[in-house]
């Protein structure tokens, strides 16, 4: 983590830029969705405002307005004739999958709700969620989100979860487990991958009702319904019951959806269905354990989404804070792995009785 010191001129310059960031973001969205960036990306060289306006059927006023702003943030480049070409930042906004997914997620899922961040922090509730629907948390309404919001949410979720499947599979299957419990299995993608990799393994997906409905459809469509069962359970419920005799308990990008105290309760609750040989595998994206500043920035931004839209009390945790939570439970960390570009996999077991 870098802690760059700024001089007074640099600091006030950055402060002034920050004041207009939300509007600049909307200028990026508009230029992308109106086709301006796509035109410049597909047509090399510099182009006049008149030409761009005619090609995409947007007024010269609108085109010039957006390009003037975007040239200041390197999305486009202006020459001495006031013609424009795609900049390197604009190139990645169009062509980089991760950047495009993040952009749509912030616009479609987060932007309106972010207006309520102050109140969300004060009340420790996702007040911004009211911009999408009348649920207590976003997880209750995933199947009822507007289509554009739903697409952006699932694209974001799957991009950061699917990437670790290949690396994680070897770790999961290293002990030749026959029964696995996937808590927070969401749409069933990981369970599906497990079935494909091992012809005998049995999986139980534990989640809320709506998520289980989606997962069951996916599993049935791939003809694995005989090996996957579905167990409805709200992990915040006072009376938690879970399937027993699982050799592995898997939780991928699940615990970051809860507060520190809730995580502690969940981990202690799963110990009730464990024995000394049970492996608990937790996958998280710790913001302080990233190779690139951009990844750290995105994860901290995701924490703001959790606060004002998802649930009001969780975040993307640092490795230090997460391990401190584990230390308060009946579990101990036995192994740690890096999986994919951004994720950490922690392997836990029951604490030794003499500790």
Report what the structure shows:
The protein has 355 residues and is α/β, with parallel strands linked by helices. It folds into three domains: 8-95, Winged helix-like DNA-binding domain superfamily/Winged helix DNA-binding domain (Arc Repressor Mutant, subunit A, Orthogonal Bundle); 97-157, Methane Monooxygenase Hydroxylase, Chain G, domain 1; 160-290 and 307-350, Vaccinia Virus protein VP39 (Rossmann fold). Helix content is 48%, strand content 14%. A seven-stranded mixed beta sheet has the order 5-4-3-6-7-9-8, with helices on both faces. A hairpin with a 5-residue loop joins β1 (76-78) and β2. It is elongated. The two termini are 34 Å apart. The mean pLDDT is 94.
CATH superfamily of the largest domain: Vaccinia Virus protein VP39
**What value does the Rg take, in angstroms?**
23 Å
Helix proportion = 40-55%
> What is the CATH third-level topology name of the largest domain?
Rossmann fold
Mean pLDDT: 94
Please write the string of helix (H) and strand (E) elements: HHHHHEEHHHHHEHEHEEHEHHEE
Spans where pLDDT lies below 50 across 5 or more residues: none
Largest sheet: 7 strands, mixed
The name of the CATH architecture of the largest domain is 3-Layer(aba) Sandwich
Distance between the termini: 34 Å
**Spatial sequence of strands, sheet with the most strands:** 5-4-3-6-7-9-8
Overall domain count: 3
Number of strands: 9
Number of helices: 15
Structural class: alpha/beta
Instruction: Name the overall outline.
Output: elongated
Indicate the CATH class of the largest domain. Alpha Beta
**Beta fraction:** 5-15%
């Amino acid at each position: 983590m870098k802690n760059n010191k700024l001089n007074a001129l640099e600091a006030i310059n950055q402060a002034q830029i920050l004041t207009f960031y939300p509007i600049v973001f909307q200028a990026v969205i508009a230029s992308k969705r109106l086709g301006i960036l796509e035109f410049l990306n597909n047509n090399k060289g510099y182009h006049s405002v008149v030409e761009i306006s005619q090609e995409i059927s947007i007024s010269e006023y609108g085109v010039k307005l957006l390009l003037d702003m975007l040239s200041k943030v390197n999305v486009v480049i202006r020459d001495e004739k006031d013609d424009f070409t795609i900049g390197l930042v604009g190139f990645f906004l169009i062509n980089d999958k991760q950047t495009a997914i993040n952009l749509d997620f912030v616009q479609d899922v987060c932007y309106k709700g972010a207006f309520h961040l102050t109140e969300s922090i004060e009340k420790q509730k996702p007040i911004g969620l009211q911009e999408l629907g009348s649920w207590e948390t976003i997880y209750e309404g995933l199947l009822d989100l507007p289509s554009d919001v739903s697409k952006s949410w699932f694209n974001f979720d799957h991009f950061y979860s699917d990437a670790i499947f290949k690396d994680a599979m070897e770790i999961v299957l290293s002990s030749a487990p026959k029964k696995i419990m996937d808590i927070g299995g969401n749409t069933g993608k990981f369970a599906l991958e497990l079935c494909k990799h091992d012809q005998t393994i049995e999986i139980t997906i534990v989640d809320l009702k709506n998520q289980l409905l989606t997962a069951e459809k996916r599993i049935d469509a791939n003809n694995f319904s005989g090996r996957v069962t579905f167990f409805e359970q709200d992990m915040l419920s006072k009376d938690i019951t879970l399937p027993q005799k699982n050799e592995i308990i898997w939780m991928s990008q699940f615990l970051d959806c809860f507060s520190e105290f809730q995580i502690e309760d969940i981990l202690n609750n799963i110990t009730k269905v464990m024995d000394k040989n049970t492996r608990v595998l937790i996958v998280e994206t710790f913001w302080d354990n990233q190779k690139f500043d951009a990844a750290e920035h995105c994860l901290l931004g995701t924490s703001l989404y959790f606060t004002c839209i998802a649930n009001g009390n969780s975040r993307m945790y640092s490795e230090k804070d997460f391990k401190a939570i584990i230390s308060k439970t009946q579990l101990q960390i036995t192994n740690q792995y890096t999986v994919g570009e951004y994720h950490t996999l922690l392997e836990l077991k029951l604490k030794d009785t003499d500790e």
